[in-house]
Amino acid sequence: MKADPAVQRRLLDLAEADAELNRIEHRRRTLPELDQIGQAEGEVRAKRDELVVAQTAFSDLDREVKRLENEVEQVRARERRDRDLMAAGASAKQLEDLEHELQTLARRQGILEDEQLEVMEQREALETNVTKSREAVAVAEERLADIQSRRDEALTDLEVAETRRKVERDLITKAMPADLLALYERIRSQRGVAAGQLQGARCGACRIELDRTALTEVREAAADDVVRCEECGAIMVRTGENR
């Protein structure tokens, strides 16, 4: 195959555009934020789970406090009723029974109030845990949002760079002979890198030095001959210093 040397040199621009597009795609797949987001999402889930546990424990104790409050109120109501009965003029036997019941109610009320105080202290501690858990969730969510924002910014930058390179590539390929472009694309699909500059005796695509015989053949080829590396199959673009 033959192609004008100037056109062949444009293959280097095309190869550079393709290399940059590959680098952009690699960066897109390997953004550090992607792993960081996974870790941050796990942290958010863990903190939310801790909050649920804290809220559940608090709710359980809150119900216990309300139960004790109801029992204390029932004891107080019973005490008021007994005192009202005593004030209404009960018999001696009734008075004795009522006095005994009032003593029992007083002991019961004391036990309930002590228990109520202890549970309320526990509830207060758990309420603090709930508050701290909510704060931890908020911090974790904020960190996740920050990482996601940085990821989105990075992806936007990559998209801009990719669009610019694709435009450059399109302009290059439109000005290139169909047969040369077809050869380039076929090699690229098979080998990845389809063209490189011959640098001394080294192929710019695979970085392997040509042996003496192959190098002589390349140097003796006509300027418009399209030559390929015998090692990697890429098109070797010769510039003035390679002649």
Automatic annotation (TrEMBL):
<dbReference type="InterPro" id="IPR056003">
    <property type="entry name" value="CT398_CC_hairpin"/>
</dbReference>
<dbReference type="Pfam" id="PF24481">
    <property type="entry name" value="CT398_CC"/>
</dbReference>
<feature type="domain" description="CT398-like coiled coil hairpin">
    <location>
        <begin position="14"/>
        <end position="192"/>
    </location>
</feature>
<keyword id="KW-0175">Coiled coil</keyword>
<protein>
    <submittedName>
        <fullName>Uncharacterized protein</fullName>
    </submittedName>
</protein>
<dbReference type="InterPro" id="IPR003743">
    <property type="entry name" value="Zf-RING_7"/>
</dbReference>
<dbReference type="InterPro" id="IPR052376">
    <property type="entry name" value="Oxidative_Scav/Glycosyltrans"/>
</dbReference>
<feature type="coiled-coil region">
    <location>
        <begin position="51"/>
        <end position="164"/>
    </location>
</feature>
<feature type="domain" description="C4-type zinc ribbon">
    <location>
        <begin position="202"/>
        <end position="236"/>
    </location>
</feature>
<dbReference type="Pfam" id="PF02591">
    <property type="entry name" value="Zn_ribbon_9"/>
</dbReference>
